[in-house]
Write a structure and sequence with these properties.
Blueprint: H1 12-33, H2 37-44, H3 48-55, H4 61-72, H5 77-81, H6 90-100, H7 103-113, H8 118-122, E1 124-129, H9 136-147, E2 151-153, H10 154-162, H11 166-192, E3 195-199, H12 208-217, E4 219-224, H13 227-236, H14 249-264, E5 269-272, H15 278-292
Parallel strand pairs: 1-3, 1-4, 2-3, 4-5
Helix pairs in contact: 1-4, 1-14, 9-15, 10-11
Domain HTH cro/C1-type: 26-80
Binding site for substrate: 179, 202, 260
Family: Belongs to the shikimate kinase family.
Length: 295
């Protein structure tokens, strides 16, 4: 007969913390992609009610049960659901050692695993990132002229790869298909151009692998602006869709901007375009790039 000491410890508090973490990550992923909870429910065929519970940290108890099983087995939960077998995978073993390593040890490992010089990989490739309405196309063209570099919009490259307009790509293949073509188009730019000014869609930062590839192969510049300026610029271009039938449009835009700021901030440079003319911002861009010695 088991004694009281044989009973497992009460992990309800830690399980709740785990569910909260899962919910937060789902919510952040959704906001960074710029889609509403209703849209995610439609795309995933998961009920809106369940998504609301999940994001609030009170998701399906089966998630917590799986966590409790992993705890009882003294496993990380990702070992049970990941593609690598924790008993045989060198990747898992390396991840564990890397997690325990000191900062300088991690740097040495990264130099061994990635011996190439990032600055050399980036060549004279510049990329403007930021939310829709940041001025990436307008300023990209001006920057290209000022630096005598060709200007490219990644969406035009996506159309070249797919053979159809971007809006048809989204209609036919959805966000997943668009993101796949986005990565292919980005790789094509890297393969064919060592000197270029590139403008990308604001949501590219929501794809971790694609964004990491972008940061690795381009000198990135975040065009930052206030949410109201983003909205006004989009409307000034004649696109009224953001406000059409959506009184919460501004709140949603602010939410997207807030969720992506940490990612946009990974750029090498940040130039604030708020309250500035295109000429003024172009001068700021050229001066900032010159100080880094990029071109």
């Amino acid at each position: 007969m088991n004694s009281p000491d044989d009973k497992p410890p009460d992990t309800s508090g830690r399980a709740a913390a785990f569910l909260s973490l899962v919910g937060e990550r789902v919510r952040k992923a959704r906001e960074r992609r710029g889609i509403s909870r209703n849209k995610l429910a439609e795309l995933s065929r998961v009920s809106l009610r369940y998504l609301a519970q999940l994001e609030s940290g009170s998701g399906n108890i089966s998630i917590a049960l799986l966590w409790r099983i992993s705890e009882a087995l003294d496993h990380r939960m990702e070992w049970l659901v990941g593609s690598d077998d924790p008993w045989t995978s060198e990747v898992v073993r390396c991840a564990e050692l890397f997690r325990e390593a000191k900062r300088e040890q991690r740097r040495q490992v990264m130099r061994i695993l990635d011996p190439s010089q990032p600055a050399q990989l980036r060549q004279k490739r510049l990329c403007l990132i930021g939310l829709r309405g940041a001025g990436k196309t307008t300023l990209g063209k001006r920057l290209g002229q000022a630096l005598a570099l060709p200007f490219v919009e990644l969406n035009r490259e996506i159309e070249e790869v797919s053979g159809i307009p971007v809006n048809e790509v989204l209609a036919l293949y959805g966000q997943e298909g668009y993101r796949h073509l986005e990565r292919r188009a980005l790789e094509r730019v890297v393969a064919t151009a060592d000197e270029v000014v590139l403008a990308v869609a604001g949501g590219i930062v929501a794809e971790p692998e694609t964004f990491a590839f972008l940061l690795r192969h381009f000198h990135t510049i975040w065009l930052k602006a206030r949410a109201d300026e983003h909205m006004e610029r989009v409307r000034a271009q004649g696109d009224l869709r953001p406000m059409s039938g959506n009184p919460q449009a501004m709140d949603e835009l602010k939410s997207i901007l807030a969720s992506r700021e940490e990612l946009y901030a990974q750029a090498e440079l940040m130039v604030d375009t708020s309250g500035r003319t295109p000429d003024e911002t172009t001068r700021d861009l050229v001066d900032s790039i010159a100080k880094l010695g990029i071109v």
